[in-house]
């Protein structure tokens, strides 16, 4: 079979996607991959300079003529109602009354056990990791119904398994998994699919932003060799590829799943 006759399983040409947390890590890799696969992207995060760098990188991508599309950056704090309202004004301007794919990726990690946490930390973590997803998904629902589109939430292995010392984060991700299944059932009749990816430790800025210095982060990555069956931490592109699969028509009969992208960590038990 000639190379040109090999079917491309994952193809997002002609699709339009809204990606939150696109200025670094998993969200940034997803935005670049979606542009490479032909999607038009609205990339959302707070840091406008880093979004500008993302747009510049995407503009260098060489694509076949049938992969038309664009990337548009919107600087917004997704925990702020007024920012989200402005974001949806941009969505209407750029995508019209429908768009195909919502990637709820923006998130943060804070450390703290039941002995160390407080309601301020709980609110910060839940506001971004769960309430913002609830709000954005609700606002996006009619657009997705119009397009018979889909949602991919970026949850965590922490949503499926219990790790001490990051209590609010664990609860928020368990909530994301429940939201994924519930909204999948609520929107299935309208042809909208809703899924999650559940990454293990992935090399991004998440842990350093949570307060780890370079030395602690390196030792955390070394430790990840034994906490992940495949013997290493993951890379953001490995999560982005799973997101692209779930968001594509290749996953047309998949909804309500929470897909571990974690080198087997979810399957491990201490012994
Ligand atoms: P990063 O810290 O690299 O990226 C987080 C992204 O979220 C950034 O683009 C950041 O941009 C954005 N963000 C943070 N706060 C807000 C806000 N209030 N409004 C809008 N955007 C915001 O981390 P990751 O790429 O690792 O994280 C992405 C997702 O992956 C998260 O949901 C995380 O929980 C999940 N995850 C990560 C794992 C890991 O090991 N890295 C493991 C499992 C899950 P900006 O600062 O510009 O706003």
TrEMBL record:
It holds the Pfam family adh_short_C2. Coiled coil: none annotated. SUPFAM superfamilies: NAD(P)-binding Rossmann-fold domains. Keywords: Oxidoreductase. One of its GO terms (molecular function) is oxidoreductase activity. InterPro entries: NAD(P)-bd_dom_sf, Sc_DH/Rdtase_CS, SDR_fam. NCBIfam families: PRK07231.1. This is 3-oxoacyl-[acyl-carrier-protein] reductase FabG. It comes from Panagrellus redivivus.
